[in-house]
C-alpha cells in the first residue's frame, strides 16, 4: 500500500481506490496528549479533498453493529474515528462500474491507535463495536437526508466481510451481534438498486 506523509498525518491507500487509512501523530507527556485530527491542506495532499459540512457522534455497547448504511441520491464521503473504545469499521464499494464493486475494506479504529478511515462517496459503511463501549465520531461532506437511506445486509455471503471477534472472545460469534430492526432488514448486494 502506498503512503503519503503530510504534516502530522500519514495517508495510506487501501486496495480500494479512494478508501484511505489516516494515521495521526499524537504528542503526549505526563499531562496527557495533543493531536490534530483534521487539517485541510494536509488532507488535500493526502488525497482527501472532501469539504465536510456535518459532524456526527454515536455511543454504542459491545456487539452493536451499525450498518451497512449509505445515502442513495445524496451520497456522503465520511472521515471516521473512535474517541473511546474500539470498533471494526467497514466500507463496501457500491460505485457502478467500479472494478472493486462489492469488495470491502476494514480497519480497527480505537482511542488507543487514534487511526482514522476515509470513505468516499458511493460506499456502504458500518462498524462493529469490539470493546465494552465505544464512542464513534465522523465528518460528512453532505448533510444527512433521512428519506434517502439505503442499506446493505451486514452478513451478505456475496460480500463475505471477515468480522473480528469481540474483545474477550477467541472467534467471531454472530449470535452476539446486536442490530437495529432496520439493519436486520437490509437488502443483499444482488438485490440492491444502486
What would a concise description of this structure say?
With 194 residues, this protein is mainly beta.
Number of strands: 14
Q: What's the overall average pLDDT, rounded?
A: 95
Could you tell me how far the N terminus lies from the C terminus, measured between alpha carbons in angstroms? 29 Å
Shape: globular
Radius of gyration: 16 Å
The oligomeric state is single chain
Specify the number of helices. 2
In CATH, the topology is named Jelly Rolls
CATH architecture: Sandwich
Low-confidence stretches: none
What's the arrangement of strands in the largest beta sheet?
A: 1-2-3-11-8-13-6
Describe the fold and architecture.
The protein has helices spanning 40-45, 181-184, and strands spanning 3-6, 9-13, 20-24, 27-29, 32-34, 54-61, 65-71, 78-84, 86-93, 104-110, 116-119, 123-129, 133-140, 149-151. The protein has a single domain (3-191), classed as Jelly Rolls (Sandwich), CATH 2.60.120. By secondary structure, the protein is mainly beta. The strands form three sheets. It has a seven-stranded antiparallel β-sheet. Strands 10-9-12-7-14 form a five-stranded antiparallel β-sheet, with no helix packed on it. Strands 4-5 form a two-stranded antiparallel sheet. 34% of the residues are buried.
Question: Topology of this protein?
Answer:
Elements: E1 3-6, E2 9-13, E3 20-24, E4 27-29, E5 32-34, H1 40-45, E6 54-61, E7 65-71, E8 78-84, E9 86-93, E10 104-110, E11 116-119, E12 123-129, E13 133-140, E14 149-151, H2 181-184
Antiparallel strand pairs: 1-2, 2-3, 3-11, 4-5, 6-13, 7-12, 7-14, 8-11, 8-13, 9-10, 9-12
Amino acid at each position: 500500500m502506498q503512503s503519503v506523509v503530510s504534516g502530522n498525518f500519514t495517508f495510506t491507500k487501501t486496495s480500494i481506490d479512494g478508501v484511505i487509512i489516516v494515521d495521526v501523530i499524537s504528542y503526549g507527556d505526563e499531562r496527557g496528549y495533543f493531536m490534530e485530527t483534521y487539517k485541510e491542506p494536509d488532507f488535500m495532499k493526502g488525497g482527501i479533498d472532501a469539504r465536510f459540512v456535518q459532524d456526527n457522534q454515536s455511543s454504542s455497547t459491545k456487539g452493536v453493529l451499525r450498518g451497512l448504511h449509505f445515502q442513495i441520491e445524496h451520497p456522503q464521503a465520511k472521515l471516521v474515528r473512535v474517541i473511546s473504545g474500539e470498533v471494526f469499521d467497514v466500507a463496501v464499494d457500491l460505485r457502478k462500474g467500479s472494478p472493486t464493486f462489492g469488495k470491502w475494506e476494514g480497519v480497527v479504529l480505537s482511542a488507543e491507535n487514534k487511526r482514522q478511515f476515509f470513505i468516499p462517496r458511493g460506499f456502504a459503511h458500518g462498524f462493529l463495536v469490539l470493546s465494552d463501549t465505544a464512542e464513534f465520531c465522523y465528518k460528512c461532506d453532505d448533510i444527512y437526508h433521512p428519506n434517502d437511506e439505503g442499506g446493505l445486509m451486514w452478513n451478505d455471503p456475496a460480500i463475505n466481510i471477515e468480522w473480528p471477534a469481540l474483545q474477550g472472545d477467541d472467534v467471531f460469534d454472530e449470535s452476539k451481534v446486536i442490530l437495529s430492526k432496520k439493519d436486520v432488514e437490509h437488502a443483499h448486494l444482488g438485490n440492491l438498486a444502486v
